[in-house]
């Protein structure tokens, strides 16, 4: 990407939870913006959002919307990405796509800037932003890669905002109904599009996204496949369980990693403290460890409860938390744009 | 224990969440009762509870309270157990103790009736009820023991009722405050007795009970030590992470088990379907899997999401759920009493 003093930015899916977080992140990181175009589908457009205090009308996305755009941040779902990303690239924009559409495409870099910024070199116009639960795991694992990552067991505690603003509203609705009646009701969980729904309030559901034929969910397989691609370890073993919990915002992950070498918690803490944008919060005697509300509204990844497996000196256990809308989506996307500029 | 047509029962800690569940379980399982004495501390006594529709006054517990008692169900904390269990045994009662006081005592059987009923033989008056998160894990693992249990990775999703009725009330209080103000507040989580508290509403906290010097919590070490004792596998490797979630009732567990032998999900399902009081709910195509609200108010253990590790044919992953106040405490205690009678 060409170096300029300011850039012409478009946000596709601007009215969604991640789209709004993208706009806020551009503000918060003081991104050098010449112009900002907000785009959405016919159904969601014609609202007015604000950027740095100024109103910006949301326009209906069309192929021509991407004329004269330097960077387009996409968060409108995989089918919108498949329609508009080639159109945007054809018109000279770089697309940073938060959907799953291109993540496993071998011609598309899948990037966590703290982990594999070099993957941006030679991109062909589309750069994929990884899945939320993958990004925070990558920031933590990358800090430990020199010990030889072999096998990762991960159980997630995922916030409902990962399903979008409608899921946040649905959980609020369930809680309000419970406050009035003392009874739980079902709304849209675990997936709006399926026939069967369970209560999410005061419950946990071991289903994030749809089931695949192998008995794993799509969310679980993203943890496997995206981790291998980002870390560039095709043989990395990942054993994932993805679970939705009644948290508005902030994903947590219970992780056990077997390394090639023996690793003490102190060795791990030292590497993790030195890692960029990874905050070690690990003082059990002071009751300090990460939890979702600690991470909320920040772009950092938090790690704690770092301890050696009781049986295996080559295995460490820890707990990782990040804001899934920020580091897990919008913040990482804007960081990708910044990294592209820095490497230009 | 002597065979009789009906028994003289005492419940110590009758006013607590588990104590009340013990009374309900005696009713629901139609336990043969000649007389029921409800006991509590001076602070909690003098209330009137009901058993099968009849009022029963809660008396202050004294050593003499256990005269003429056949079976005493204890759930009043470890220090109360240490004071009253020897007194009750001296007076001829069998004590079934839900506290942690005697669980690891080598002269005390630690029993899950579906798993190790034989451990009751030759007891010396005290029988320990395992910790809630251990019991449901045992029911699931025992079904698979012939494949050779080697290493268990477990991450828990534990309900607040495991901390007692005051924690249920505290979470309700947090939710009510949030409904009115839109803000979360801290009450007593993760532990009433410590200085630092975090919000539990819309949050997850990787701390159940106090931290030990090895960086694990007491709850995590219970999973390790109690599992080894109940399964009678001293070398069983257990890698535990215990996490509190904003669920009123029902613990969930994400489990990965490495076996000596290769095991397919179908082999595991067949063994689990044949196991007593273990319900296999595992039809992802029908969106069927266990979740806490499915288990609530039942004495069964539920298992689903049974799948082979993507990398290791000797490792299976699954998700286990049970009502922590029932199978995890009161129900298991009453089952122990029934098993004692059946084996008398």
TrEMBL record, chains A, B:
Pathway: Amino-acid biosynthesis; L-lysine biosynthesis via DAP pathway; (S)-tetrahydrodipicolinate from L-aspartate: step 2/4; Amino-acid biosynthesis; L-methionine biosynthesis via de novo pathway; L-homoserine from L-aspartate: step 2/3; Amino-acid biosynthesis; L-threonine biosynthesis; L-threonine from L-aspartate: step 2/5
Active site (UniProt): 132, 251
Protein keywords: Amino-acid biosynthesis, Diaminopimelate biosynthesis, Lysine biosynthesis, Methionine biosynthesis, NADP, Oxidoreductase, Threonine biosynthesis
GO molecular function, one term: aspartate-semialdehyde dehydrogenase activity
Start and end residues of each Semialdehyde dehydrogenase NAD-binding domain: 8-123
Keyword Oxidoreductase: yes
Enzyme kind, highest EC tier: oxidoreductase
Enzyme Commission (EC) number: 1.2.1.11
Amino acids binding substrate: 158, 244
Positions contributing to NADP(+) binding: 15-18, 43-44, 161-162, 324
Binding site for phosphate: 103
UniProt catalytic activity: L-aspartate 4-semialdehyde + phosphate + NADP(+) = 4-phospho-L-aspartate + NADPH + H(+)
Task of the protein: Catalyzes the NADPH-dependent formation of L-aspartate-semialdehyde (L-ASA) by the reductive dephosphorylation of L-aspartyl-4-phosphate.
PANTHER family given in the database record: ASPARTATE-SEMIALDEHYDE DEHYDROGENASE, DEHYDROGENASE, PUTATIVE-RELATED
Cited NCBIfam families: asd_B, PRK14874.1
Subunit note: Homodimer.
HAMAP family tied to this protein: ASADH
Name of the protein in its database record: Aspartate-semialdehyde dehydrogenase
């Amino acid at each position: 990407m060409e170096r300029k003093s300011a850039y012409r930015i478009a946000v596709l899916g601007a009215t969604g939870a991640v789209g709004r977080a993208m706009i806020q992140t551009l503000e918060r990181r003081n991104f050098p913006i010449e112009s900002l175009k907000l785009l959405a589908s016919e159904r969601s457009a014609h609202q007015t959002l604000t950027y740095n205090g100024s109103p910006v009308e949301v326009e209906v996305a069309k192929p021509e919307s991407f004329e004269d755009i330097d960077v387009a941040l996409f968060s409108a779902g995989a089918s919108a990405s498949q329609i508009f990303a080639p159109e945007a690239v054809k018109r000279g924009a770089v697309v940073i796509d938060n959907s799953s559409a291109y993540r496993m495409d071998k011609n598309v870099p899948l990037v966590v800037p703290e982990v594999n910024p070099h993957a941006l070199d030679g991109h062909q116009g589309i750069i994929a932003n990884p899945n939320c639960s993958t990004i925070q795991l990558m920031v933590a694992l990358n800090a430990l890669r020199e010990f030889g990552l072999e096998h990762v067991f991960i159980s997630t505690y995922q916030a409902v905002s990962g399903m979008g603003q409608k899921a946040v509203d649905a959980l609020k609705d369930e809680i309000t109904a419970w406050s009035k009646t003392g009874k739980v009701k079902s709304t849209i969980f675990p997936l709006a599009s399926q026939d069967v729904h369970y209560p999410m309030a005061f419950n946990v559901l071991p289903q994030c996204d749809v089931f695949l034929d192998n008995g794993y969910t799509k969310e679980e397989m993203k943890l496997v496949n995206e981790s291998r691609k980002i870390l560039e370890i095709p043989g990395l073993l990942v054993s994932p369980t993805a679970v939705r919990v009644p948290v508005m915002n902030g994903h947590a992950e219970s992780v056990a990693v077997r390394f090639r070498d023996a690793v003490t918690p102190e060795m791990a803490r030292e590497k993790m403290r030195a890692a960029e944008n990874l905050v070690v919060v690990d003082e059990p005697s002071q009751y300090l460890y990460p939890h979702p509300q600690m991470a909320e509204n920040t772009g950092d990844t938090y790690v704690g409860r770092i301890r050696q497996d009781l049986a295996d000196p080559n295995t460490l256990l820890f707990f990782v938390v990040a804001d899934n809308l920020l580091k897990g989506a919008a913040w990482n996307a804007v960081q990708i744009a910044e990294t592209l500029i820095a490497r230009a």
